[in-house]
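Hey, quick one: can you model this chain's 3D structure?
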Amino acid sequence: MKKVFLVFFLTLLAAPVFAQMTLPSVNLGFKSTQDPLEVVNVVKIILVLTVLTLAPSILIMMTSFTRLVIVLSFLRQAMGVQQMPPNQLLVGLSLFLTFFIMGPAFKEMNTNGIQPYITGKISQEKALEETLAPLRKFMFTQTRPADLSLFVRLSKMETPKNLAEVPTLVLIPSFVVSELKTAFQIGFIIFLPFLVIDMVAASILMAMGMMMLPPIIISLPLKIMLFVLVDGWSLIVGSMVNSFG
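Sure thing. Here's the predicted structure for all 245 residues.
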């Protein structure tokens, strides 16, 4: 009985407090407006949300991220370590290396396309053209002519007279295929020294008659030691950054 009375008494004390509280409400709807600036702001918000939605695809397909993450994955497999470094670390390293490599292009995109459009100096079409120009330049420098010719032929379009006439939708898959090919070539070169260590370890164990001992137990510490002694991370990262010119 005392507990019930105590709860009732506290409720009476808190009633004025709850009565004075105001809760916000959110209303979503459409209304007509005579102010063109309101329409422009809504269009800008829609464009920003669209870019944020497509940002992961743009980052993966139109930058150096593809080559970096594939090469780092090949490196982990060649060393024989299963989850070291973990996937989150490889993706994070590839992401920040991408920002480092694409820094000049991103700066040019912001200077020539995004900032002039925000200040109203250029139109939307001109802003899109100026923003895509640095990315197209980067992709053209990394795309093989054979891959570009393949997708031009598959699109059944007329042979472009110059690179400016190549559509972006044709350039992107050409760039991705070229990046995959380059990444696999680098991965093959990375595999070779580690493969030699595995073969030497297996040959020694077989010569000693220790066939029941897995060669990976002997070769894994040797591969890690070799990778550390030659400063492998600096070599790999420096070579990949330099591969983009």
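One thing worth noting: The CA atoms of residues 74 and 93 lie 14 Å apart.
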